[in-house]
Design brief:
The longest helix has 28 residues, at about 195-225. A hairpin with a 5-residue loop joins strand 3 and strand 4. The protein is built from 15 helices and four strands. The chain is about 65% helix and about 5% strand.
Length: about 375
C-alpha cells in the first residue's frame, strides 16, 4: 500500500479558456476512476508485473470494469425486469394508442398520457428504467475518457491527475504501450496520422469486437427472451431498429476513442454478454423461447416451475396442477349457467311453441300423439 499512501492529489491547472464546467462536474468521478486504476495497478505490480508495461495498465482497466459493473448488478436486474414488463404491456399500450388514434386535441392527448402513465404505474415500470445501467455507466465512461485524454497533457507538464494518479504514475501510464506498439491514450485517427500500422490493426480489431459484442448482446434479448405477444408491440420494432442502428454509431465514435476507452467498452460488453446469458437462461421471460428451453431442461431433470415461479420436483408440480384443475372445475360448477344467445327468428318460434292453445294446452302439448289431459303439463 506504500504506492497508494505516497500518491497525493496533484492540482490540475484550469484550461486557458477559463472555467472548465465539464471538468468540474466530472471531477469526483475522475478521482474515483483514478483511485480504482491506481489500486489495480498497485495490485498487479505487487504480484510481479512491470509497473510501466502496457499489459499492467490494461489489466487495471479490466479491474475498473469489474468494480463498476459489480456495483451496477442491482440496476441490471432492475433493467431486465423493466424490459420484460415493457414488452409484456406492449399490447395494452397499443390499445391505448388505438383508442386515441387520430385525436389531436389537447384533452385527448392529456387523457392518453394519463392512461399510459397509469398503465406504467400499475405494472411498476417506466421506459427510463430499462436505460438505468447505461445512464449510470456513461458518466464513468466519460470520466475514463477524460482521464486518458489528460494523460498526454499532464505527462508533458510533469503533473499528475486530480487524485491518486500522481506525476510518476501519469508518466508510466503515458509511456505504457500494449504489446509494445500501441499507447493506451492513442486514438485511431492519431494512429493513422503517425502511420502506426500495428496500432491501427489493434484499434480496428478492438472496435470491430466492441461493435460485434454490443450487437450480439442485444440480439440475445430479441431473439430468445421475448414472448410472442411482445414481438407484436412497437417496443419490439424499436429494439429491432436499434439493433442495426447502434453499430453505426459505434463505428464513428470508435474512431475518436483512445485505446484504453475501447478496451474498457469491449470488456464491459463481454461482462454484459455473460450477465445477459445467465439471466436469459435462469430467469427468462414467460412464454419466450428461452422459457421453453428452460422448462425442457428442468423436465429432463424431473423438475418443473410451480405457480409461484419456483423450481420444484415434478411430483409436487403435478399435484399442484391437479389441485388447480379441481378448484377450477368446482368454481365452474358453482357459477351460474349462462343462457346461450338465440336469434330473433328462433326466439319467436320458441315462443310460439310455448304459447297456450285453446283449452289450456301449449302448442307442444296439443301436438299429435299427446296423451296428456286438457290443462295438464306434459
Amino acid at each position: 500500500m506504500d504506492l497508494l499512501l505516497a500518491s497525493t492529489p496533484s492540482p490540475t491547472p484550469p484550461p486557458a479558456g477559463g472555467f472548465d464546467l465539464i471538468g468540474t462536474i466530472l471531477w469526483p468521478l475522475k478521482w474515483l476512476v483514478e483511485a480504482v486504476l491506481v489500486f489495480w495497478h498497485w495490485l498487479f505490480t505487487t504480484i510481479g508485473l512491470p509497473p510501466a508495461d502496457g499489459i499492467t495498465w490494461v489489466l487495471a482497466i479490466v479491474g475498473l470494469v469489474i468494480v463498476v459493473r459489480s456495483a451496477m448488478i442491482p440496476l441490471f436486474v432492475r433493467q431486465i425486469k423493466s424490459q420484460r414488463k415493457m414488452m409484456e404491456i406492449a399490447p395494452e399500450l397499443r390499445k391505448v394508442q388505438e383508442k386515441y388514434r387520430g385525436k389531436k386535441d389537447q384533452l385527448s392527448r392529456e387523457a392518453m398520457s394519463r392512461e399510459t402513465m397509469a398503465l406504467y404505474k400499475k405494472h411498476g415500470t417506466t421506459p427510463v428504467s430499462s436505460c438505468l445501467p447505461l445512464l449510470v455507466q456513461m458518466p464513468v465512461f466519460f470520466a475514463l475518457f477524460s482521464v486518458l485524454n489528460d494523460v498526454t497533457r499532464h505527462a508533458v507538464a510533469g503533473i499528475g491527475g486530480v487524485g491518486l494518479l500522481n506525476a510518476e504514475l501519469t508518466q508510466e501510464f503515458y509511456n505504457a504501450k500494449l504489446f509494445g506498439v500501441a499507447s493506451l491514450h492513442e486514438t485511431l485517427i492519431q494512429a493513422f496520422e503517425t502511420s502506426n500500422t500495428a496500432a491501427i490493426v489493434i484499434l480496428l480489431t478492438l472496435v470491430v469486437l466492441m461493435i460485434a459484442s454490443q450487437f450480439f448482446t442485444q440480439l440475445q434479448i430479441i431473439s430468445k427472451n421475448l414472448s410472442p405477444e411482445a414481438k407484436t408491440g412497437q417496443a419490439y420494432q424499436m429494439q429491432k431498429i436499434m439493433l442495426y442502428v447502434l453499430p453505426f454509431a459505434f463505428v464513428f465514435s470508435g474512431v475518436f476513442f483512445p485505446l484504453g476507452v475501447v478496451i474498457y467498452w469491449f470488456v464491459s460488453n463481454l461482462w454484459t454478454m455473460g450477465q445477459q446469458f445467465l439471466v436469459i437462461r435462469e430467469m427468462p421471460t414467460p412464454g419466450s423461447d428461452a422459457a421453453k428451453a428452460r422448462e425442457e431442461r428442468l423436465a429432463r431433470k424431473g423438475k418443473a416451475i410451480d405457480a409461484q415461479g419456483k423450481v420444484v420436483p415434478m411430483e409436487k408440480y403435478q399435484a399442484e396442477q391437479q389441485r388447480l384443475f379441481e378448484e377450477a372445475e368446482r368454481a365452474r360448477a358453482a357459477s351460474p349457467k349462462r343462457q346461450q344467445p338465440v336469434g330473433k327468428q328462433r326466439a319467436k318460434k320458441q315462443a310460439q311453441k310455448q304459447a297456450p292453445k285453446p283449452g289450456g294446452q301449449s302448442s307442444k302439448d296439443a301436438s299429435p300423439g299427446s296423451t296428456g289431459a286438457p290443462g295438464s303439463a306434459s
